[in-house]
Each structure stands twice: as structure tokens, then as C-alpha cells.
């Protein structure tokens, strides 16, 4: 290409000629025609031909993330493609960036320092923010190397200086935990925390560990780079610099000294208030820019016009934000000390070679650039042809055969393995056999071959010049909401309820009833040391329970807000409550068994197995199935193929994918010639399901109708006539659907959404329908796993508890109530066509709050909804919001449970400090269901007025963006509501009386008895051998963790479990001290005693007493044989006690002897 040609023309260019143009020294190149992912392909080729790094500037965060994913797909080594995100908070607003965002920023800056980044993609706002100077960042890092020596106290102090927080358990980024010779720490740039094991001051080894189980991985690390926990580190020498600059700024703004000192004190304590990141210039003198980190390289502007426009907008926002902050006397720095202006940005770009990816050709009189057009073709025609075909893959098959015949390189890109395997199987039915290797990537493509690969790619492309075609799964099956894999670090296991036991919590003791837990006490009795649970009962009665008998205690859990009455030790109240609960559980169990027996006797239509048409319909699902969603679908299809009627409950939160399970079942039913009825509790939900079913089934000749108040009587009559004639395949409606005049020609499947919200008479009608047709029930209220287990085999339950979308999508900000923050949050959402929930949970002032919001944001259409409105009025408000006629809903917490409003992607929660953690999770889960970034703003009256508990709740919520993790921890109240809904109101009362765990045990026992299994009384062995057996506080400082391990050890059913727990203790806490080793031996004895039903092992100072239960599995003749043993010294009392005369003996020897005696009975 000749650079002297008329630059107003655009020359045709291939990848090769473009690279030659760049290598020839062209300083400014403008490229047109980059459709699909062609820009990323071109950049990857450029990286292969050059050693110069690339810096790609995009207009916004979303396009930056997309381009980074696309480039990583084509380049093949994703760790070399870095993404440098923006803070995502408006300049000088009292909001703080998400910890994940800071972690990615720090990791990218360090990769640039070390020269490891081949390309960095960043939104223009990130490029305009000033940064920690390179020497300071290098100084704020710490390299740990295995087998090197580190002075321990200095190392811990250094971690604090880097902004790490000491915690009992290391689970979150930016925390560390110390136990003996073990240091756990979670650098923000690591995907998992790391366990560092010392021998003296030498690092013996370093291994990553799972934060859910706290167990180490096998993999060993030779070195670990510990980077600062956040960008603003107020510690060490930086603190003096910061305090001095902060005071000077406060004086310049005439901020009262008392307020200044209050703010400084909070910062010194590590309580960084929202917005403290804007104080960066006070902390690090001489901030640098991203261009300083980048050094020499080629800059690429993706859509330069949009980049320039966004730069101007951002500079204006920074100026406005600084002015607003100054007016409110917020001690933020001058805006130029933290941000570049648009002119500064242009000035920094000027010295570097630059490539512009342009959409429009703009005529300029003075040209300073070379222009060319890239010949790329998008796959829009292929997608349109596939849509027109209505679900079959014929157009794709024809394209693939043609490309292969012409010797093209062809790649089919899928996000997840399951979808790739599904596409492979569907193409195999069209005689296109594809090998699939999950490790294969773009570099493995060969001419004349079709390659199926895994990878994140926003769009495909066709390059006729290079005979290359790349097709994404979205272009085959339609738009899909992409989910990044949930790392194990985020997928936390549900904690044992004892891990959450705090002093002052209510507990349930199996013998004494409801009391208060007053803490774990270390006591010395008769020269024996041990840990005891201090329990308090009515009248101030105290009980010190040895930890080896911890199984007798459960945390009291009942409905939210229920305060139980304490029992009296030795009183009759507890026993009566247990008997009442047992009777109620028995009544429920009998009813469940009766329904179960009737179902086993009944016969229903057997649906066929999934065929090719079903598989193609399944593949067009616009999401990737989560494992438990797929399991629920498989279980439903399996039930439908049985002769007995299906009666399955699918449980999962809104947006977790229950509706798709129902749609698949409905499709299968209609495909086999049956009709489907979908019953919902409200008109609003009926409308929502009707729209969802129609959209999902649009490509297939199915008729979906709805009867509700939205239809006129004439329309309802006409729809019912068609349903009776078999001309309606799926009929959706409220309780109108189960009235006498509704007839179906051949009903095969009834789907019920939120059955617990229907009245008694409706439920009776449903009970009769269950005997004849397959029934699928959907519920959004969580059902506890323990209850799920006890009902196994009686109610068929499928639980979907994996959030389908990575909940990092919900950015959570904690901020004080601030007019500017609220206005900006609402306007940001409205400008992108979204909607906002504003939760204000005080009905008496909700009208005034709505007026305030309307005045603050006159551009908004504000509506009000709360639980004290009439049903019809509330319904009209919700429909208005769903249809987009209003865009801000000021409401109480009634945001309807089953509603899915994809356009609502911002939620503002007023007085968030007054909500429980579970409620906050539930509310935040209402947003973040579409492809847009979702935001949650938790408004608080001010840091100073927060209780410590409230501050902790908000911190957890802000940092645990992954809903599925913390949600399970905080969801007891919701689960209990689910239990009450499933079991009925009478059972809810029994749960409140004796606690949920105790109730579940009773129900499980009762069901087993009624099924004919003999109930075996649990045995709780008592060991009185005078041993100091416990987990020392020095070894395991956190009392809650000690409780968890005591509970695990006491619950062990065999010695293997105890050996496994011993391994876990060594892994997490180091070598076991003597009292802990003794505790493990005591627990092994306990396992033997449980197995042989021995209730007592006691040493009197001369005799070893072993107290057997009358139902011991040890036959009398074996005990007789022991009595006749030549060793002698044995007697057996009428109360089943074996007394062995062993004389005076060391207590450890007594323990070994007791074990040996019982093992003898096991062998005989």
C-alpha cells in the first residue's frame, strides 16, 4: 500500500498488508470494516508479529471487558492479556470501588512493572486517573520464597502495612490469619488464599487452600508475590505523609478541627469510609499516570470518537464532583491532582504510534493518517437464516459443508463444555462428526477442518481473504447471558450453625431444652483441665457441658424475630413441648405417606424420551445451565417418563432458572400431544409467565394463551372454548384456571407456581388433580437441605441453589444518605434505559419519600408500592412498572418474590443498617438479571451512628458479591419460611417451640418408624477418665472454630473420620499438642462406645467401669467369656456395668486399656 495515495480514499487491506504498514513506521493508522471480533483477531496477529506491547483504549468498561476476552481467545495465553478496570464510582462521590476491581487494577500495574503484559485493555476513564508511582508500588510489594528466612513479627507488621486485616479465618481477599507456625493470607491478586508453613523463621512450604473447607491443595508454590490489599494503604511511613496533607486540605476548606480529628481517627483505625479512595493524592506524593507504567508501545483506540466524547464527559464529571464536594466541605483533594483532563489525555497519546478502529469515515482537510478497510464479514446472515428455519440447524450445516469443501479454517466457539458437547451431538445427527478437545484453542485450527473450541468470544467473523470463519454459540442458538465460572474460592460451603454461635445466642439441649449459650469456658476440675460450654437456663440455672458431649446441643433456629422462652432445668415444660412436636410430626408423616401410597397406585401418561427436536429446542436456551438446574431438568423428564404421576417440587430463588425447567417439561408434554396448564397466584405473574413462554417458544408451532383480569370476558370465553377443543397447547392463569367451567381436551401436565400462596379450597382441588396428571410445583422460597433429606422419597424435591449469573454483576456500595449520590445513581440507570427500585421500609413516610425522589430527579416517572395497598391497586402499580410506564418504584420490601424485571438494574436501599443480612441479600438479588452491570446502593445515616454489628453486616454484603455464597449462610429465616410453607402452619408452631434442627430429627425418626424401620435411641457416651483432653486456645485461638471441631469430632461415626479430622487440624493449625492428641484418642473411644452401645466409661482410681445399654449388640456369652478370662478382676452388675479391677494407673494408660477392652468385644 502506498502511503502517498489520496487519503480520503480507503484502501482494501489484508492482515498482512496492515502489519507491513505498521512495521514500516506509520505513526497513525485508521482501520475500517472491523465487524464482529475482527478487531481482536487483527490485534492478536499484530502481537505475534511484534514484541511491542499494545494498549487498547475503549469508551467504557463493558466494551473493554469484551475486547479483552476476545483478544485472549485469539491470542491463546490469557494471562498475558490484562484488563485495567476503572473504579466505577463517580468522581468525589462518597462511594468506594469494589475490592475485586482494586485487585485487578493492582495486578495489572504489577504485570506492567515486571514486563509480563503483552496487551492491556482499559476504558478511557481508567486511563485518566492518576496512580501510585511505580517505585512506591514496587516498595509496597513483598516476595515470599520457599525455604527462605523471614523474621515472623516483622513479616506480620509488613502485612498490616500493606493493608491486610488480621482475622480468625482467612476467607476474603486482603485478610490474613496466624496460628502457631502457620500463616494464611489472601493476596487480592490470587484466585485462592495461600497457606505458608514455617519452621522457626524459615518458610517450609506454601500451598493454596480452599477457603470453603480451609483444606490445602496438593500443589506447592515456590514463590508468592504479596501485593497491597488496596490502592490506598494508610500505614507505616505513608500515614505521617497522609495525615499532614489531609490536615492542610481540611484547613484550606475551613473544616472544624473536631470533625477533622474524628475523620483521621476513623482512618487510623482502618475504618475507611465510603469515598476514602479519592484521598489517594494525600497519601502518595507525585502520583503518576497509566502512560508512565505503559512506557513505549502502540496505542489502539477502539472507536476514537466515542473515546474522545467519554473523556470530555468524564473530565466534566470530575470538575462537577469536586465542586459539589467542596460545597459540602468534604476534604477531597483538587480534581487535577487525581485525574487527567481530556487535553492531558490527548497530550499523553501524541508521542506514541496509534491505530484507530473506526466505524465512520470522517472527511478531514488535513490528513495525518493512513486509512484502510479490512475485509471482514459478520455472521448476522447466518443467525437470521437459523431463526427463519425455526430451531433446526440446516443453514449452519450448509455453511460448514461449503467452508470445509473450500479449505477454510472453521472454528465453532462455545463458552462451556456442556454446550460444546451438545452442539457436537446435534451436528453429528446431520452427519458432521467433530472431535472435541477441551484444551484446544484458536491456534489449533487447520485448513479444511472444523474445530470445536471453548472460549469467551463476543461475536464471530468471516475473513474471505484468509479463508477463516469463526462462529459463536450465540450466532447458532441466539443471544446468551454469559456466566463466568464461579471459582471455588467464591462458592463457599454452607457453614455449620455452630460456627455462627455467639455468646448470648439461644441453644437447644436435647435433655434440658432451650437455654442461652454464655461462651466456651476452660475449667480445671479434680486436676483435670478441659473446655466446657457454659449454658444458662430459666432462674439463672447453669450447666457446664463437656465438649465431648457437644452433640447434645444445637443452635436454636426458628422464624425471624421469634424469641423463645427459656426452659427450667429439671422442669416438665421441655418434655411436654417435645411430645407435642412428636405428635404433630407423626400426623404430618402419616399424611405424606398416604399421599405417597396413592401416587404409587395411580397411573398417568408415560411421556417419551427426549428426541432430536427436543434437543435442538434445549440448545436454544439463552443461558448456560447450572449443574443443579440441569439435574432438576433431568429429574423432571425422568419423572414424566414413569407410569406413576409426577409430583415434583423445584425450589430456587428468582432468576435461578426454575421457569426454564417448567418450559422444558411443557415442551415435552406438547410434543407428545398433551396440553399444559400453568397456575400462578397473581395476575402480574401470569402475564410475566405468558410473555416468557411465548418468547421462548416463538420458533415452534405452539399456542400459548393466558386467562386473567387482563383479558375481557369475551376473550376468556373464546380461549376456554379453544382449550376444550384442544386448540390451546399451554394455558396460563390464576385460580380462574381451576374453576369448573375450565375444561381441557387432553391435559397431561399441571405446573403450579408458588403453591403455598393459594387458599385451602384451591389446594383441595389441586390435591384431586394430582392423582390424574403430572404435577410440577415451582417455589422461590428456599427449603432447608436437612428437611430435603428427611422428606426424601415422600416429596420429590429438586433444589437449584447455584446462582445462574456470576453475582459480581451486582456492584454494591455503602454510602451515607446523599442527594447527589441518589440522583446520580437514578440518572445513570435511566440514561441506559433501565429502571430503579428505591426501598423505603416505613409505610407511614413512603409517600413523602416518593415525592422527595420525584423532586430530586424530575426526569423520572416515580410510582409507589407497599404491602398495605389493596391487591388490585398494588397489581396495577407493578404492571405499570413491568411495562416500563414508570421507571422508579419507591416501595417497601414487598418487591414481589416471583417477579423477574430484567430492566431493573439498580436498587437503592434506604436505612440499610436496619435490615438483617438475609433480607439485604434477598433485596439485592432483585437486580442483576440482565446483561447490564447492576448496582446496589446501601444508604446509611452516617458511619458514626452505625452499631458494630450493622457495620459488619454491610461490610460482608459489600465484599461478598457472590450471592450464592453468603446467601446460604444468612438464609435461616428464609429457609424456615420455606419449611413452614412446605409443611403447613401447624408445623411452623412446633418448629418455634423446639427449634428447627430438633424438629427435623423428630420428623426423620417418625417417618422411619412409620415405614417400618425400628427406631434406635441415640446414645451419648459419657467418659469420666480424668483426662485433660481439649484443643488449647493457643493452638486454635478462635472459640467458634474450636466449637466447630468439637462438634465434628463428637459426630464422628468411625475412626477414619477422626483420622481425617486430625489431618485437617495438622494442615490448618500445625502439629497437635498433647491435650489435642488426647482429645482425638478420647473421641476414638467414643466411636467404639457408640458402636457397642456403651453409655459410660469411668475410672474410680482403682476400677474401670464400662456401662452397657440393655440393647448392646455384644452377646451375653461374650461378656461371660470376659468374666471367665484368666486375667480375672472382673465383675458384672445387674445394671449392665462391667467392672475391671486395674489398680492405680496413669490416666493415659487407662484410656488405652478402655479402648483395648472394647476392641476385644468388637473382635469376638
From TrEMBL:
PROSITE patterns: HELICASE_ATP_BIND_1, HELICASE_CTER
Main location: cytoplasm
Keywords annotated in UniProt: ATP-binding, Cytoplasm, DNA damage, DNA repair, DNA-binding, Helicase, Hydrolase, Nucleotide-binding
Subcellular location: Cytoplasm
Domain Helicase ATP-binding intervals: 639-800
EC number: 3.6.4.-
MF-aspect GO terms: ATP binding; damaged DNA binding; DNA helicase activity; hydrolase activity
Matching NCBIfam families: mfd
Name of protein: Transcription-repair-coupling factor
Gene of this entry: mfd
Amino acid at each position: 500500500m502506498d502511503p502517498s495515495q489520496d487519503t480520503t480514499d480507503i484502501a482494501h487491506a489484508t492482515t498482512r498488508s496492515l502489519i507491513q504498514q505498521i512495521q514500516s513506521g506509520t505513526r497513525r493508522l485508521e482501520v475500517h470494516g472491523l465487524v464482529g471480533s475482527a478487531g481482536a483477531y487483527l490485534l492478536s496477529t499484530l502481537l505475534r508479529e511484534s514484541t511491542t506491547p499494545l494498549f487498547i483504549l475503549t469508551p467504557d468498561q463493558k466494551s473493554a471487558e469484551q475486547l479483552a476476552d476476545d483478544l485472549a481467545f485469539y491470542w491463546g495465553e490469557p494471562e498475558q492479556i490484562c484488563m485495567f478496570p476503572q473504579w466505577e464510582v463517580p468522581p468525589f462521590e462518597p462511594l468506594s470501588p469494589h475490592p475485586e476491581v482494586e485487585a485487578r487494577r493492582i495486578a495489572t500495574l504489577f504485570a506492567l512493572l515486571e514486563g509480563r503484559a503483552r496487551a492491556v485493555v482499559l476504558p478511557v476513564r481508567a486511563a485518566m486517573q492518576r496512580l501510585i508511582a511505580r517505585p512506591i508500588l514496587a516498595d509496597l510489594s513483598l516476595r515470599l520464597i520457599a525455604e527462605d528466612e523471614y523474621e515472623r513479627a516483622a513479616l506480620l507488621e509488613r502485612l498490616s502495612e500493606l493493608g491486610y486485616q488480621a482475622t480468625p479465618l482467612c476467607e476474603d481477599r486482603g485478610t490474613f490469619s496466624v496460628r502457631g507456625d502457620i500463616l494464611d493470607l489472601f493476596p487480592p491478586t490470587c484466585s485462592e488464599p495461600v497457606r505458608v508453613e514455617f519452621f522457626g523463621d524459615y518458610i517450609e512450604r506454601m500451598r493454596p487452600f480452599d477457603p470453603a473447607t480451609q483444606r490445602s491443595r496438593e500443589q506447592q508454590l515456590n514463590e508468592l508475590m504479596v501485593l497491597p490489599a488496596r490502592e490506598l494503604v494508610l500505614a507505616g511511613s505513608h500515614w505521617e505523609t497522609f495525615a499532614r496533607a489531609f490536615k492542610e486540605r481540611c484547613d484550606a476548606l475551613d473544616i472544624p478541627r473536631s470533625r477533622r480529628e474524628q475523620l483521621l481517627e476513623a482512618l487510623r483505625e482502618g475504618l475507611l469510609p465510603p469515598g476514602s479512595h479519592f484521598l489517594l493524592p494525600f497519601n502518595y506524593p507525585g502520583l503518576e499516570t497509566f502512560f508512565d507504567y505503559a512506557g513505549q508501545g502502540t496505542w489502539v483506540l477502539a472507536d476514537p470518537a466515542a473515546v474522545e466524547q467519554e473523556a470530555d464527559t468524564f473530565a466534566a464529571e470530575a470538575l462537577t464532583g469536586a465542586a459539589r464536594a467542596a460545597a459540602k466541605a468534604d476534604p477531597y483533594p483538587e480534581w487535577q491532582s487525581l485525574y487527567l483532563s481530556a487535553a492531558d489525555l490527548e497530550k499523553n497519546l501524541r508521542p506514541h504510534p496509534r491505530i484507530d478502529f473506526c466505524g465512520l469515515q470522517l472527511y478531514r482537510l488535513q490528513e495525518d493518517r493512513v486509512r484502510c478497510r479490512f475485509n471482514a464479514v459478520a455472521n448476522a446472515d447466518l443467525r437470521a437464516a437459523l431463526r427463519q428455519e425455526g430451531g433446526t440447524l440446516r443453514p449452519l450445516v450448509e455453511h460448514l459443508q461449503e467452508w470445509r469443501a473450500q479449505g477454510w479454517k472453521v472454528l465453532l466457539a462455545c463458552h462451556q463444555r456442556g454446550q460444546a458437547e451438545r452442539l457436537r451431538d446435534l451436528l453429528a445427527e446431520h452427519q458432521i462428526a467433530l472431535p472435541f478437545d477441551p484444551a484446544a484453542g484458536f491456534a489449533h485450527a487447520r485448513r479444511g477442518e472444523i474445530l470445536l473450541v471453548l472460549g469467551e468470544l463476543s461475536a464471530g467473523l468471516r475473513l474471505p481473504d484468509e479463508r477463516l470463519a469463526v462462529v459463536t454459540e450465540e450466532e447458532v442458538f441466539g443471544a446468551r447471558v454469559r456466566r463466568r465460572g464461579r471459582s471455588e474460592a467464591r462458592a463457599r460451603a454452607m457453614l455449620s450453625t455452630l460456627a455462627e454461635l455467639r455468646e448470648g445466642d439461644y441453644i437447644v439441649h436435647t435433655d434440658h431444652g432451650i437455654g442461652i449459650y454464655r461462651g466456651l469456658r476452660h475449667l480445671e476440675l479434680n486436676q483435670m483441665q478441659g473446655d466446657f460450654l457454659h449454658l444458662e437456663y430459666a432462674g439463672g440455672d447453669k450447666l457446664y457441658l463437656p465438649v465431648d458431649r457437644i452433640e447434645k446441643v444445637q443452635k436454636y433456629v426458628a422464624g425471624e424475630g421469634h424469641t423463645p422462652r427459656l426452659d427450667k432445668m429439671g422442669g416438665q415444660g421441655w418434655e411436654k413441648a417435645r411430645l407435642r412436636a412428636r405428635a404433630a410430626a407423626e400426623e404430618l408423616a402419616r399424611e405424606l405417606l398416604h399421599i405417597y401410597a396413592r401416587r404409587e397406585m395411580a397411573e398417568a401418561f408415560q411421556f417419551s424420551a427426549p428426541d432430536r427436536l427436543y434437543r435442538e429446542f434445549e440448545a436454544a436456551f439463552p443461558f448456560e445451565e447450572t449443574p443443579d438446574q440441569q439435574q432438576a431438568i433431568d429429574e423432571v423428564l425422568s419423572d414424566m417418563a414413569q407410569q406413576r404421576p409426577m409430583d415434583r417440587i423445584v425450589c430456587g430463588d428468582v432468576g435461578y432458572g426454575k421457569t426454564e425447567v417448567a418450559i422444558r417439561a411443557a415442551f415435552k408434554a406438547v410434543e407428545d400431544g398433551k396440553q399444559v396448564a400453568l397456575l400462578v397466584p397473581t395476575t402480574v405473574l401470569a402475564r410475566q409467565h405468558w410473555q416468557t413462554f411465548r418468547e421462548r417458544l416463538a420458533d415452534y408451532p405452539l399456542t400459548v394463551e393466558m386467562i386473567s383480569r387482563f383479558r375481557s370476558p369475551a376473550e376468556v370465553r373464546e380461549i376456554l372454548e379453544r382449550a376444550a377443543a384442544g386448540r390451546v397447547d399451554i394455558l396460563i392463569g390464576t385460580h380462574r384456571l381451576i374453576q369448573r367451567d375450565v375444561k381441557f381436551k387432553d391435559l397431561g401436565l399441571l405446573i403450579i407456581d408458588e403453591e403455598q400462596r393459594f387458599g385451602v379450597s384451591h389446594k383441595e382441588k389441586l390435591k384431586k388433580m394430582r392423582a390424574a396428571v403430572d404435577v410440577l410445583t415451582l417455589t422461590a422460597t428456599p427449603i432447608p437441605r436437612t428437611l430435603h433429606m428427611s422428606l426424601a422419597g415422600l416429596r420429590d424435591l429438586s433444589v437449584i441453589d447455584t446462582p445462574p449469573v456470576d453475582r459480581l454483576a451486582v456492584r454494591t456500595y455503602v454510602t451515607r444518605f446523599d442527594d447527589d449520590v441518589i440522583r446520580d445513581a437514578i440518572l445513570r440507570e435511566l440514561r441506559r434505559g433501565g429502571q430503579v427500585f428505591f426501598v423505603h421500609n416505613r409505610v407511614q413516610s413512603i409517600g413523602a419519600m416518593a415525592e422527595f425522589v420525584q423532586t430530586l430527579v424530575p426526569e423520572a416517572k416515580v410510582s409507589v408500592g407497599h404491602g398495605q395497598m389493596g391487591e388490585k391497586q398494588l397489581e396495577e402499580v407493578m404492571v405499570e412498572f413491568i411495562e416500563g410506564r414508570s421507571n422508579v418504584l419507591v416501595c417497601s420490601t414487598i418487591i414481589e418474590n416471583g417477579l423477574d424485571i430484567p430492566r431493573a438494574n439498580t436498587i437503592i436501599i434506604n436505612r440499610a443498617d436496619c435490615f438483617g443480612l438475609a433480607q439485604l441479600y434477598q433485596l439485592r438479588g432483585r437486580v442483576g438479571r440482565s446483561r447490564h452491570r447492576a448496582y446496589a446502593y446501601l444508604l446509611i445515616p452516617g458511619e458514626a451512628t452505625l452499631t458494630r454489628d450493622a457495620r459488619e453486616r454491610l461490610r460482608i454484603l459489600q465484599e461478598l458479591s457472590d450471592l450464592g455464597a453468603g446467601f446460604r449462610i444468612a438464609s435461616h429465616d428464609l429457609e424456615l419460611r420455606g419449611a413452614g410453607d412446605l409443611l403447613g402452619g401447624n408445623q411452623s408452631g412446633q418448629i418455634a417451640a423446639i427449634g428447627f434442627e430438633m424438629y427435623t430429627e423428630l420428623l426423620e425418626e417418625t417417618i422411619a418408624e412409620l415405614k417400618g424401620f425400628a427406631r434406635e435411641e441415640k446414645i451419648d457416651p459419657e467418659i469420666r477418665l480424668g483426662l485433660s483432653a481439649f484443643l488449647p486456645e493457643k493452638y486454635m485461638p478462635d472459640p467458634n472454630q474450636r466449637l466447630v471441631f468439637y462438634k465434628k469430632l463428637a459426630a464422628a461415626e468411625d475412626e477414619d473420620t477422626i483420622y481425617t479430622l486430625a489431618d485437617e487440624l495438622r494442615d490448618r493449625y500445625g502439629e497437635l499438642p498433647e491435650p489435642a492428641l488426647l482429645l482425638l484418642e478420647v473421641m476414638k473411644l467414643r466411636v467404639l462406645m457408640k458402636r457397642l452401645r456403651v453409655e459410660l466409661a469411668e475410672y474410680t482410681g482403682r476400677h474401670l467401669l464400662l456401662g452397657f445399654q440393655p440393647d448392646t449388640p455384644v452377646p451375653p456369652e461374650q461378656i461371660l467369656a470376659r468374666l471367665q478370662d484368666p486375667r480375672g478382676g472382673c465383675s458384672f452388675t445387674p445394671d449392665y456395668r462391667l467392672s475391671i479391677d486395674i489398680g492405680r494407673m496413669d490416666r493415659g494408660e487407662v484410656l488405652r486399656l478402655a479402648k483395648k477392652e472394647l476392641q476385644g468385644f468388637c473382635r469376638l
